[in-house]
Design a protein that fits this description.
It contains two helices and four strands, in the order αββββα. α1 packs antiparallel against α2. It has one domain. By secondary structure, it is an alpha+beta fold. Strands 1-2 form a two-stranded antiparallel ribbon. It is elongated, with a radius of gyration of 21 Å.
Amino acid sequence: MELFRSLDIASSGMDVHQTWLDAIADNIANLNTVSSTDEPAFAERLIVARSNTVNGKPGGVRVAAAEFGNELGRIVYDPGHPLADEEGFVRLPDMDLGDQMTSMLMAQRSYQANVVSFERARSAYETALEIGR
């Protein structure tokens, strides 16, 4: 319904940012996942968002794809690790905690902005209904 499109747009933004936050949480949880050098490293999850159109009009956003980062990771010398190869190397994900935390803050703030938009639109609609009574 055209009247409630602002609610749908804010809701779609919350959905996308929740998916982004879930991906970041998964990345942070696997930041120190060790693999042997003959296996791929944990690949960073990246969320791609695209604008959504409904009947030719802006309709919020949607998750277009979930992409994955570098599976080659970083080769680190750790001869005491049980997964180390004969030369003492292991494979770690090619991610940085600082980058993940920065992304998390951006996703969290964007989610909060969509919540505020949703609440304000809902309040305006409720006020309009009260006036109409």
